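User: Some background: our group keeps a shared notebook of sequences we're curious about, and every so often someone picks one and asks for a predicted structure to add to the entry. Today it's my turn. The entry only has the sequence so far, pasted here. Could you supply the structure so I can complete it?
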Amino acid sequence: MKINDEKSFPHADRESFILRAQHNELTEYRVYTLLAGLVRDSRNREVLQRIAADELRHARFWEALSGRETAVSRRRVVWYRAMAWIFGITFAVKLMERGEDRAQLDYASMRDRIEGIDALIRDEEEHEQALLNILDEERVRYTGSIVLGLNDALVEFTGALAGFTFAVQQSRIIAMIGLITGISASLSMAASEYLSTRQEEDGKNPLKASLYTGGAYILTVLFLISPFLLIANVFLALAWTLINALLVILLFTFYVAVAKDLDFKKRFTEMAAISLGVAAVSFLIGLAVRTAFGVEL
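Assistant: Of course. Here's the predicted structure to add to the notebook entry:
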């Protein structure tokens, strides 16, 4: 193993690249080993263990070039463990897959400068394909049902709370109306998803699909109305609710973008614009209704 063309690849840059690659490969070995221990399916576990072994071999390749030992990034290991616990194994593995993509690009840029790197590039390409094929986690299969519940709750309920805010202008009453409306709507959404899933032949359980939809809806409703239970000023409560809505959109869009390989920025912008746009229109409707009916609460 040797490095070619040292004049175009200064020693400082060469050493930095090698140590960074060594550090990343060793960290990814630890992460894949951790994730493999969390996977129940034996076939998927074996794939992750094989990838972990490859990453360790890659780390040894770079260590032979650097002549130095590097430490594992405990922060990254803890991060991926937390992602697996919160969002599931599939999500954590998909995040790791993005790292594989970056490694391929980095290594390809050094193909003419470091002898033996082609084998590592082939391994990274094989890892990407293996990761695309192995996992079929329940929460990912039911992502569509969760999206349905979240989308409806964010768009409809954010708008409803904005309308209630100007029409009613009393936090507790707004929270009460919102809770009644939200629970009723979540049950309706769950029932609709159950009937819809029964008509489809995609292998999803209708009851589970309805529970994911209804559960996502009601949890979002509770999160959105919480400011009206804590803040007396209805306009401050509404502002906090809108921030909560953006937070839900941010987190879930990030999850879907990673799990489904979609464009995060485009989906976040689209969902945020729709939710806030409906809220603005509903706020104006609440103002018009209050004025038209002369209601003072």
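Suggested note for the entry: The chain has two domains: 6-136, 139-293. Residues 264-293 form the longest helix (30 residues).
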